[in-house]
Amino acid sequence: MTRTEAFVAAFKSLLSIAGLCVDWHENDFSKRILNVPQELYEKGCVKDVDDGLKAAEEVGYPVMIKASEGGGGKGIRKVNNADDFPNLFRQVQAEVPGSPIFVMRLAKQSRHLEVQILADQYGNAISLFGRDCSVQRRHQKIIEEAPAATATPAVFEHMEQCAVKLAKMVGYVSAGTVEYLYSQDGSFYFLELNPRLQVEHPCTEMVADVNLPAAQLQIAMGIPLYRIKDIRMMYGVSPWGDAPIDFENSAHVPCPRGHVIAARITSENPDEGFKPSSGTVQELNFRSNKNVWGYFSVAAAGGLHEFADSQFGHCFSWGENREEAISNMVVALKELSIRGDFRTTVEYLIKLLETESFQMNRIDTGWLDRLIAEKVQAERPDTMLGVVCGALHVADVSLRNSISNFLHSLERGQVLSAHTLLNTVDVELIYEGVKYVLKVTRQSPNSYVVIMNGSCVEVDVHRLSDGGLLLSYDGSSYTTYMKEEVDRYRITIGNKTCVFEKENDPSVLRSPSAGKLIQYIVEDGGHVFAGQCYAEIEVMKMVMTLTAAESGCIHYVKRPGAALDPGCVIAKMQLDNPSKVQQVSRKILLILLSKSRLHGNSSLERQKVVDDLISHWDRQAELHTGSLPRIQSTALRGEKLHRVFHYVLDNLVNVMNGYCLPDPFFSSRVKDWVERLMKTLRDPSLPLLELQDIMTSVSGRIPPNVEKSIKKEMAQYASNITSVLCQFPSQQIANILDSHAATLNRKSEREVFFMNTQSIVQLVQRYRSGIRGHMKAVVMDLLRQYLRVETQFQNGHYDKCVFALREENKSDMNTVLNYIFSHAQVTKKNLLVTMLIDQLCGRDPTLTDELLNILTELTQLSKTTNAKVALRARQVLIASHLPSYELRHNQVESIFLSAIDMYGHQFCIENLQVYIIALFCHSALLAYIAYELNSVQHRQLKDNTCVVEFQFMLPTSHPNRGNIPTLNRMSFSSNLNHYGMTHVASVSDVLLDNSFTPPCQRMGGMVSFRTFEDFVRIFDEVMGCFCDSPPQSPTFPEAGHTSLYDEDKV
């Protein structure tokens, strides 16, 4: 059995003459096949630049240089003048090496129409309607449609007849495409016969219902056209017959079925003149339906290399008419999701399909190029939405990198400063010539706060497994991705893209994408002007020119032929205007200026230079001074009491975990959260609303009688909620659950019941001590969270504490990381803790045993960073052991009344000064009961004003005290030792200079003034007491003379 091979395409002799036009007459058609002499063929081609220039002068500019074997926009260039001709001619030669080249006159404002033909070896040839491929950029088709609706039916029928005649004249066999340029006046001109199936052939297949590849194969097998099933059906005859068909005089005239729109998906950047780029594809998701389908040459986790074609997908949409086909295509493209290292044309295609010019079919082959020149861009997301998303992505990357680096250091045994764990990131973005300066702070693991110009917005952020961020912003959700490139950030929000520039250095010229350096156009060291081409690179089979952004002298780094990576340095420039160089950020610039050559100048001169440089810097990109828009944050969280409670409680828990905002936002927000927390905790409707939420979720999953009984208790509580004696029925609800559980005999039934009522049981347990008990429990949980972290950093220096934590948690470094991250914000946590203590103990000084233990633990925090919290806790403990204010007031009042009754008018005003001094002394004793007072004395100033001066030692627990021996203490401090409390720092320790060295003796004083004017007048003299050396006064055990502490005298 012998095997016969057939060539499934046009004859080889036809392949190289496509596009060549020769003179012919109608009478020549009788010869059946028109031969093209070799000499005539060679005359129609140009061999070098000189021949091309002569031909261009003959036909007149502008002209088109076209390689016969080119296609897809390759090997074709438009030339406007003779100066540009040599360079563009070489580009055509480089893109299609060895191909014959034509030079033709440019046809302006024309349409590109095609006729699909089929011809067999028996002399039969037919046309299968036509296509309109007028939407092109750089002469490469972007959008195709069938049938061609721009020409009148009579004109297009004539174009089809001419295409069939041409196929018969040259003896064409197989499928092919005859291409025309159609003018607005109705005339048309032959462009070329493309001897192959084109990528847009499915357009014809869908409107003609003919399988073109199958028909091409059958023709190659020797089957005549009239024996092909699809052809017979198109001409309305029996599909299984074999009778010949008179195609030119058929009784049934074929008609197109509906309308088709096709769109090519390419890896090109529409914002930069459709520059191609390569890279990997992370995601590609296309949803086809009965009217829309597509194919792609890459898949997820695939990629495009720099030597491949930029087109990697083709989508087709069918509709009953043109409008419906356009609508179906727009919907499909909006649902197409492509995420990779490169930009695509999807967004721009949507923009083109929605323009009025396209929908009204008022376009030509130069329409898209005009839109590109006019900087018409695809639809962008809202500017502020893009800025917020961009800032979040940049900050998220920085924060994750800081955490990752810190964690790796811990695993290696290295201890970094806690401040390297970032929680706030400064972000600068440039968008369309406007600079946005923002701060981004984590408020929780899934919540960020974006700050700009004194305004802020809160955004919920969830990290996706594929590296994207799901944002909840202003009541809507957005799936966003970021691709960081050499000189920009590319942010994709849904199916829209915005690009933020980085502050760059125009003196460094880089490759925009991967490819190959072909040649330099300017000599090394030569001068180029802004916008002038300096080199050519080959990117994805296309020759692209690189232009200089600024004027200057160029010096090359790469050699011609070198492979290029994205962002690699090609050349460097010596700018004519060096002030345009932006090599460092604004912050680094200020630091360098303050630490370098400006040191020798005066402060005014340094400030003037800094101001001038900042002024020049800000001229590079206009600084945005507006604020962020207000968004619907409260509407999403809900305004019901229990939802507000959980929101503020979660925020306070996150503060304890170290997620703190920068000032001044932190102080105001924490104050608001604490006030709202206490307000909701004191509201008796809080447990009722929480239980209502739970009952809604478990309704139908618990027995009806249990649900009915619980709702009865809820209704009774709701009716009496305003009563002071009304208590939440925690115990009653617990009894209902226990009673029903006791009736269940099967273990499986009890487990199901407990699982369904678990949330109710947890609520009942939280409120078992009533509203106030729940309030104290919530606040104490926050205080315990503070203690759990800060107690880890009390035993030695920071490094020692971290090593101890690392030893305790060898298998879980994340726990160590969380401790350090929380401790880094101890100063801000102190503010929250003192607020909570004031709220909890300010109104009611009585303390439960559990709260007493927590406050006692707080007093034992010995680090200076915890001094304020320890002091406030001790003050609360002291206040809890004192009689109530009313009782003390009544006792003092009774003493005064009894003294008046006893002594009557014997009270002398002359003794008032002694009483004042005694009052001051006792006040000092009571106020500094936690300290070691070692001297108290009084004296008079120049105008007989009394002043009491006292000296005291810091407590042994204070870090500045060291190992100084403890002095004997007076008996009035023994009561505090009864409660097991140690000594902590006082307010004065926080305010005084910590540079004092042991013996750590401090000094205080008390003075009384009759009027404010006396205070102003004597103030300097009083302050002078602290400047003098401490007065010589014996300590209490060594006192050998009568003292103010002698109770008989006082």
Give structural attributes:
disordered C terminus; D-amino Acid Aminotransferase, Chain A, domain 1; Dna Ligase, domain 1; eight-stranded antiparallel sheet
Would you write up a description of this structure?
It is built from 34 helices and 36 strands. The longest helix is centred in the middle third of the chain and has 29 residues, at 383-411. With 1050 residues, it is α+β, with helices and mostly antiparallel strands. The protein is 39% helix and 22% strand. It is elongated. Helix 28 packs across helix 29 (867-880). Among the domains are: 1-38 and 109-257, ATP-grasp fold, B domain (D-amino Acid Aminotransferase, Chain A, domain 1), CATH 3.30.470.20; 45-106, ATP-grasp fold, A domain (Dna Ligase, domain 1, 2-Layer Sandwich), CATH 3.30.1490; 260-373, ATP-grasp fold, B domain (D-amino Acid Aminotransferase, Chain A, domain 1, 2-Layer Sandwich); 383-501, Glycoprotein, Type 4 Pilin, CATH 3.30.700; 685-768, no CATH class; 885-1038, no CATH class. The strands form eight sheets. Strands 17, 18, 19, 20, 21, 22, 23, 24 and 33 form a nine-stranded mixed beta sheet that branches.
